[in-house]
């Protein structure tokens, strides 16, 4: 498998953009973070590495990372768009706690299969899907008892 850095460099050159040291730093910091991160959270980490990188650059670079397939956006319905690793990561869906905001990543092969069947039934060829299950996590249920 190609390194994420190479994928991004190739994508940039197709867009007639260059892999600058700033973009490289943003990519590396992003790749070091597991989980889901907003543009603002990433900016706060990057600031510590290189204070010359502005918030708008982080925002734009994250968009490029998503377009290149390195990252994807996740939306937990709280008004914040977050990014997670996509390249080299298996597809997963999310369970989201509406009380504390905790997210759980999960895959159920039966549900995956059923989604394909459902699409087929309607004459669709499935390209991708997003499944978010919203609810209250175990800890939050216990707290409210
Ligand atoms: Zn919770
Ligand atoms: Zn995730």
TrEMBL record:
Recorded hits in InterPro entries, A to Z, give: FUR, Fur_C, WH-like_DNA-bd_sf, WH_DNA-bd_sf
Question: Chief subcellular site?
Answer: cytoplasm
Tell me which UniProt keywords the record has, alphabetically. Answer: Cytoplasm, DNA-binding, Iron, Metal-binding, Repressor, Transcription, Transcription regulation, Zinc
Q: Which domain of life is it from?
A: Bacteria
Q: Which GO molecular function terms does the record list?
A: DNA-binding transcription factor activity; transcription cis-regulatory region binding; zinc ion binding
Q: Which cofactors go with this protein? A: Mn(2+); Fe(2+); Zn(2+)
Q: Which GO terms describe its cellular component?
A: cytosol
| Co-factor binding details | Binds 1 Mn(2+) or Fe(2+) ion per subunit. Binds 1 zinc ion per subunit.
Which Pfam families does the UniProt record give? Answer: FUR
As for subcellular location, the record says: Cytoplasm
Positions that bind Fe cation: 91, 93, 112, 129
GO biological processes: negative regulation of DNA-templated transcription; regulation of secondary metabolite biosynthetic process
Please list the residues that bind Zn(2+).
97, 100, 137, 140
Q: Which family does it belong to?
A: Belongs to the Fur family.
Q: Matching PANTHER family, A to Z?
A: FERRIC UPTAKE REGULATION PROTEIN, ZINC UPTAKE REGULATION PROTEIN
Q: How does it assemble?
A: Homodimer.
The name under which this protein is listed is: Ferric uptake regulation protein
Native organism is: Maridesulfovibrio hydrothermalis AM13 = DSM 14728
User: What is the organism lineage in this UniProt record?
Assistant: Bacteria, Pseudomonadati, Thermodesulfobacteriota, Desulfovibrionia, Desulfovibrionales
